[in-house]
Each structure stands twice: as structure tokens, then as C-alpha cells.
Design brief:
Elements (H helix, E strand, L loop, with lengths): L1 H6 L26 H15 L5 H15 L14 E3 L6 H4 L2 H20 L4 E3 L5 E4 L4 H10 L4 E9 L4 E9 L2 E6 L14 H7 L14 E4 L2 E7 L6 H4 L4 E7 L8 H15 L3 E7 L4 E3 L5 H11 L1
Parallel strand pairs: 1-2, 2-4, 3-4, 8-9, 9-10
Antiparallel strand pairs: 4-5, 5-6, 7-8, 10-11
Helix pairs in contact: 2-3
């Protein structure tokens, strides 16, 4: 039964891979890696094994703890810019109302001006902070280009072409603009992965997003940054080619659920497993910088010394 439960982690229906037992190793003494997870499952097996004597069982579990414990502190590459992560708290039922768009957009400009006063070099906004097709709004595009001579601006918005609609990240830097489109789309939220015509006819007619590139990267201050938009930040493939990830999310869809917690656990697991730093700006809960896991004994020692 334990083997069956463990193998569920490798079954990804329609590409949805959030059932990852790696999150069990994010906290505690075990290494946040697949080795740590395997050790946790083996300890559970031997704890409930009924054909081994108590003393053998204790010895085996102790050996497993020693094998799975975290001994090495990983240090990922830090963002070498003075940055500001913005967390907004706009409810989903208010976000896309036409009457609110200008007020919410002006709040973004105000945040940028405040960050410039604070001598920040980079400001990062959440997914769809501009809740419209920003590339079709010359006023805001021009304003952001001008402000980007004083601060680098990363902001989420929709972008459109004559045939496609994308969920995008806009990077404004020194008067230039780059647009990176989301590739990993949420099944039945941003795309219908199977039986499109059937679902659109009998369930709901979803306005689907088009896909961008699988790996979107750009350079800031001579550092290569991987772009991730919400669901993308939980994709293991992105971490295999990254040192720094700047992720943006709109978690207001799930404000009253544990979705954001599970998202954070997955990000923490992959950050440690691949030695990556993640700078995560959200609407809803919760913006943070995620780094590889600290050794538990060091954390306890630091807290004790600080007291």
C-alpha cells in the first residue's frame, strides 16, 4: 500500500502534478529531496512492520534517520539588485470589473513611484496586475517605458495578437520592453486539454489562452532569470535549467483555500532540490523569497542565540 501511495506522485493526469510527496520533506530534519521522501516512507514501513523485533526495528529506523537527515546547507544565487516584491489583495470578483481597472492600474504607477523614492532598482508585481491587454494600451506602455529608465519593472498582464491571447509577464528595462508568455496552462482554468468541443458545448465556453515558449528566460544585471507565471512555478522542468526564478501569481482565485500553501510547499521543495532562489510576487497570499532549506539544527541554534 505504501508503494502504491508513493507511486501516485509520478502519475500526472492532464499534466497536473501537484500530488508530490516531496512536500513532506520541506520541514523537519530530513533533506528536502527525493532521498528524504523515500526515507520517510521507509520509516513508515518499518514502524508498522509486524515481523521484526522491536530492537531491530529501532536500529533500522535510526539508521534511516541518519541516512535521510540534512547535513549540507545549500546556497543558491541571490538576485544582485535592490528589489521590492509587491503583494496586492484584490479579490477575484473585483479584479476584472471595468470600473476598477483604472484605479488598480494607477495603484501600480503609485507603487513604482514609491519604489523609485526608496532607491529600489527592481520592482515585481503579481500576475495580471494590469487586468487587461497591456500591449494594446499605449498610455500605460509609454508611462512604464519612461519609468523603467529609473527602475526595472516586472508586471503581469494579458497580451494579445490578431489571433492569440496570452497570459504574460512584461519586463520594462531602460526604456525597452520584453514580453514572455505562459506555456504551462492550468487544465480547465486556462485551457481545455481534452475534448474541447464537448466541454465548450455542454459545460462552459472557456476563453482559452495560447501557449508561449516552454522556457522563458531574460537577463537582469548579468544574471539569467527564469520567468514563471503561477502554475508554471510548480513545474519541475523549469528548475532543471534555472538558478534564479522570478515568479508571479494571482492566488485570489483560491483565497479561502489551502492552494497557496500547497503552492509554497512545492516551490520550497523544488528550490532545495535544484538549488534555486525564487522571488514570488502574488495577488492574494503570499509574496515571499523562497530559498533552499536551512538545516534545522542551525535554525534552532540561531533562534537560541538571538534570544
Amino acid at each position: 500500500r505504501l508503494c502504491g501511495i508513493f507511486l501516485l506522485s509520478f502519475i500526472h493526469p492532464l499534466g497536473f502534478d501537484w500530488l508530490n510527496w516531496g512536500i513532506l520533506s520541506v520541514y523537519g530534519i530530513f533533506e528536502a529531496s527525493y532521498k528524504g521522501v523515500i526515507v520517510i516512507f521507509l520509516i513508515a514501513y518499518f514502524y508498522y512492520e509486524g515481523y521484526i523485533s522491536r530492537y531491530y526495528k529501532m536500529a533500522i529506523i535510526l539508521i534511516l534517520i541518519l541516512i535521510g537527515a540534512q547535513y549540507e546547507q545549500k546556497y543558491a544565487q541571490d538576485l544582485n539588485l535592490n528589489y521590492k516584491l509587491i503583494q496586492t489583495n484584490i479579490s477575484q470578483d473585483q479584479k476584472f470589473i471595468q470600473e476598477n481597472l483604472q484605479a488598480h492600474s494607477n495603484m501600480i504607477i503609485d507603487e513604482i513611484l514609491e519604489a523609485i523614492k526608496e532607491k529600489k532598482e527592481l520592482i515585481i508585481f503579481p500576475e495580471t496586475a494590469f487586468a487587461f491587454a497591456l500591449n494594446k494600451s499605449p498610455y500605460y506602455i509609454q508611462a512604464l517605458k519612461e519609468l523603467s529608465h529609473k527602475i526595472i519593472i516586472i508586471v503581469g498582464a494579458i497580451s494579445t495578437t490578431t489571433t492569440n491571447t496570452y497570459n504574460s509577464t512584461y519586463v520594462f528595462n531602460n526604456g525597452d520592453i520584453e514580453i514572455f508568455n505562459k506555456y504551462y496552462l492550468v487544465p480547465f482554468g486556462e485551457e481545455i486539454p481534452i475534448f474541447k468541443n464537448f466541454f465548450k458545448k455542454y459545460f462552459y465556453n472557456l476563453d482559452e489562452f495560447s501557449k508561449g515558449e516552454k522556457l522563458n528566460q531574460y537577463t537582469l544585471n548579468n544574471q539569467i532569470i527564469t520567468n514563471a507565471i503561477c502554475y508554471e512555478a510548480t513545474k519541475e522542468k523549469l528548475y532543471q535549467n534555472s538558478n534564479i526564478i522570478i515568479a508571479i501569481s494571482n492566488n485570489a482565485w483560491f483565497n479561502h483555500s489551502s492552494q497557496y500553501k500547497l503552492q509554497n510547499l512545492l516551490l520550497k521543495f523544488y528550490a532545495n532540490n535544484y538549488n534555486v532562489n525564487i522571488y514570488h510576487a502574488t495577488n492574494g497570499k503570499e509574496s515571499m523569497v523562497i530559498k533552499p532549506k536551512e538545516i534545522l539544527l542551525l535554525k534552532i541554534k540561531e533562534k537560541f542565540l538571538n534570544k
